[in-house]
Amino acid sequence: MRPFFFGRSERLLFGTYHAPAVRSPRPGAVLLCNPFGQDAIYAHRIYATLAAKLSKLGQHVLRFDYYGTGDSAGEVEEGSQAAWLEDILEAHQELLASSGASRVIWVGLRYGATLAVLASQSLPRALASLILWDPVVDGTAYLQELAQAHATFMQQELRGWRPSPAEDCQALGFPLGPDLKRAIAAIDLAALCPPKARQVTVLSTSQKAGLDRFRQAVTGWSGAARWMEMISNSPWNSDEAMNTLLVPMDVLDAMIARIQEIR
Amino acid sequence: MKERIAQFGPGQTLMGIETPGAPNQSHPARPTWVFPNAGVVHRAGPHRLTVKLARRVALAGFPALRFDLSGLGDSRARSATTFEQAAVQDIRDAMDHLEQTTKASRFVLCGLCSGADNSVRAALADPRIAAIALLDPYAYRTIGFHVRRLVRRASNPASWQTLAARMGGVRRRFARQPRPALASDAESDGAPPRPMYGRPFPERSAFAADLRRIVDRGAHIFIVYSGGMDELYNHAGQFKAAFRRYRLGERIRTEFLPACNHTYTEIAQQRRLGDLLVAWAEGLFPAASANPRRQVGPVG
Asked: Which of A39, A105, A194, B238 has CA atoms 20 to 30 A from the CA of B228?
């Protein structure tokens, strides 16, 4: 595991590269795209576990934080959806340079999956595969989910808590500026062009808004698309600290099996 | 403010991020802040709180390190040791690393929840720690706590409805059936402490003895209780009342933030906490002075 900073000096990104831990590495590399906000806090252990397992199977892996998130420079307020799409492309280049791999797979979780679909459209060459784990399909519904999660948590935490106008621009401790909200609200994954990937796998573990419509859209995409449904009670958008210890190994195992299939 | 990656400890398996103090404020005598994990959340902290606090103190001229204790985040677990023992050794390894690489010689530890508990343990073990900032450390009820809670409940109509719904308890008493004991029922001044946020609380006298040992060697303590502790703490003066008999002296300052929850979820409260910590540290370690002030305010 090699933690490092990369990118432009005025907006350094924090990444952790996992080199293959075998003598004969596979020619593939996997980029892990973070979700937003509290989901990203929860995802840290999940991604660290996934990266370690893939590394032992011979894959190069890079996990990283978008600008203004995690250990990267800047504050969330300074980030934007457009900038985070660029961060994914920057991390992709970094992974290519670190690994020398010719075949790259992206894995995205929740909002990270949605960003991955969007960012892939700007790639010069198609990805070997894109794995979308519970993607955010309907941006407006996602914003409502964030607002609801915030209000529910705060009411549990503080006696007599009442939402104030400031609540409108934050979600479980993370700022949601007007530009970011507008960009998220405009998300309709089912209406997007297919991602630039030779294979797409959707791992669905929870029923969210727009999922059925998205499933129909995925079925219509050319190339190999696979929809995998799994029952897993992942506590998305939870501010409960102990939840950060939870790693849904069944989902990770299914994902790893899928990644190992890709040639 | 360009941050650096820190890898240290046995086999370089502990991982953290260093934030240099802002150059216009930095002073060689200013201690370095060290932030261990808050509970089991990785080094960024719940909703990135630790990143924000580390950068806030650094902006005020205090270098900072946030890092993962062994077995958490990206740090590898130590073998053959308990988590508590390992946490103290991890913090000492972090300070050794900073001493070797930045010539830092004094440190401020800042911890939330179990991070506060680990900060106390480390401060007991290592004299380089000049001050500790404890966010929601152990708290102890007092008679005043119960009175305030009773008054609050009596003034809430919902409490009377709950009471009516619980009248079944009276029937049980007449039937001589023992009511299941609740941890909170055993609480009163001096009664066994109640665990909170998954942490077993020591006896009040034991916690007082630990705090006494820390201040007696000249270190300072800042305790901030949040509204998330309201089952144990409900007044700004409660610490003083709970520990009056132990005469802990004037190196302990406390603050009560009832509008904040345990992990400071709301952004305005995160900023408020950062400002509060910086104001306390600047009072103790002014930029032009090499030594902490002898007195920083009244107890409680």
From this structure: A39
Rounded Cα gap, residues B186 and B194, in angstroms? 9
CA distances from B60 to A165, B209, B279, B287 (A): 30, 32, 9, 9
Query: Cβ of B35 under 8 Å from any chain A Cβ?
Result: no
**A188 pairs with which residues across the strands?**
A138
| Residue bearing the bigger pLDDT, A184 or B287 | A184
Say whether residue A37 is in contact with chain B using an 8 A CB cutoff. yes
Instruction: Please report residues of A whose CB lies closer than 8 A to that of B43.
Output: 71
At A33 the three-state DSSP class reads strand
| Contact criterion met (CB < 8 Å) for B42 and A16 | no
Q: Do B7 and A157 touch (CB under 8 A)?
A: no
Fold of B4-142+190-284: Rossmann fold (3.40.50)
- What distance lies between CA B136 and its chain's CA centroid? 5
Count of A-B CB contacts under 8 Å: 95
Domain boundaries, chain B: 4-142+190-284, 143-186
The alpha carbon of residue B90 is apart from the nearest alpha carbon of chain A, in Å, by 19
All residues of chain B having their beta carbon less than 8 Å from the beta carbon of residue A167 are: 266
- Mutate one of B47, B83, B199, B263 to test the A interface: name it (highest A CB count within 10 A): B47
Q: Is A174 on the interface with B (CB under 8 A)?
A: yes
Interface predicted TM-score (ipTM) of this complex, two decimals: 0.93
Is B286 part of the contact surface with chain A (CB cutoff 8 Å)? no
Give the least confident one: A160-164, B131-135, B175-179. B175-179
Q: How many angstroms separate the CA of residue B125 from the nearest CA in chain A?
A: 28
pTM of the complete model: 0.90
| Cβ-Cβ contacts under 8 Å for B264 (sequence gap 6 or more) | A173, B46, B47, B49, B226, B270, B273
Domain boundary assignment for chain A = 2-261
Residues B254-278 have pLDDT tens digits of 999 999 999 999 999 999 999 999 9
- Tokens standing for residue B165: 């719904």
**Phi, psi (5° rounding) for residue A177?**
-70, 165
Per residue in B128-166, pLDDT (tens digit) is 999 999 999 999 999 999 999 999 888 877 777 777 777
Whether residue B182 lies within 8 A of chain A, CB to CB, comes out as no
> How do residues B203-250 score in pLDDT, each as one tens digit?
999 999 999 999 999 999 999 999 999 999 999 999 999 999 999 988
**Superfamily grouping for domain A2-261:** Alpha/Beta hydrolase fold, catalytic domain (3.40.50.1820)
Strand-strand pairing, B220-226 and A224-229:
unpaired
Six token digits for residue A85: 């799409």
**Confidence (pLDDT) at B176:** 54
